[in-house]
Amino acid sequence: MPEVKDADFLRLANYMMDNYGINLTKKKHLIQSRLNAILSSGKYKDFTEYVDYITGGSASVEDMRVILNRLTTNHTYFMRESSHFELLKNKLLPELEKKYNSKKSLAIWSAGCSSGQEPYTLTMLLFDYFGDRRKDWNLKLLATDISNHAMTIAKKGSYMEEDLKDVPDSWKTKYMTEKNGVYTVTPEVRSNVVFREFNLMDEIKFKSSFDIIFCRNVMIYFEADVKNALVNRFYEASNDGAYLLIGQSETLDKSSTRYNFVSPATYVKKG
User: Fold this and answer.
1) Distance in angstroms (rounded) separating the CA atoms of residues 259 and 269
2) Where in the chain is the domain with CATH 3.40.50.150?
3) In terms of DSSP H, where are the helices of the chain?
4) pTM of the prediction?
5) Which of 148, 191, 251, 262 is 20 to 30 A removed from 183 (C-alpha atoms)?
6) Does domain 83-268 have CATH number 3.40.50.150?
7) Which residue has the higher pLDDT, 244 or 69?
């Protein structure tokens, strides 16, 4: 494959930043390697023509999905950064259960859910925590990602055994079925998650305000101003007393955020 010209690389990187908040300015090799199959198809004369097409406003929805699927990283696994799930079980859920005991409803959003491991982990934890009480509660959660490829995997809910190394055996028994080394979440678990394609650069206009937002290891790809604007949108889309959980290697800008620090990678909206 011919070397990608710096000018074309910067045009594409700037387009992805402006429209999707994804910072690829230091990932020229990644862009070239991940788009190699598209450029080898013969549909485009060269990378310049492909960038012209993508950035020119005439690209089809499907072609935009293809490039997003190729350029977004979808690595995740069950029980990732498990301290958050311990915090949820031992502090946040008891607090929110008491707070909403009359309306018996929680609004939880897994933002940047990738291939589904996070929202399914959350669902299994919710089911385990509430036990028989969950029949009286609305615990459906929203899970979004920009990649429709990730969404397809997530909706299927099937994973290899190595993906489940940190999942308790009791959860595998209760909430999954196994066939030929492939574990699939039960219909009950799968139906508790509402999957939607969503660009985090867009205005947040879901029906309900949220009590917990998980957005972990997503904003590491965003520039500071993009990240701060997104955090502000999360804040506006949350109820008073709602929690925002981010990646353990991430922090919020103290000078700009309205969230209050709770513990590493955990913040609360105080009205």
Assistant:
1) 5
2) 83-268
3) 6-20, 28-34, 36-39, 47-55, 61-71, 83-87, 93-99, 117-130, 148-156, 169-175, 187-191, 224-236
4) 0.81
5) 148
6) yes
7) 244
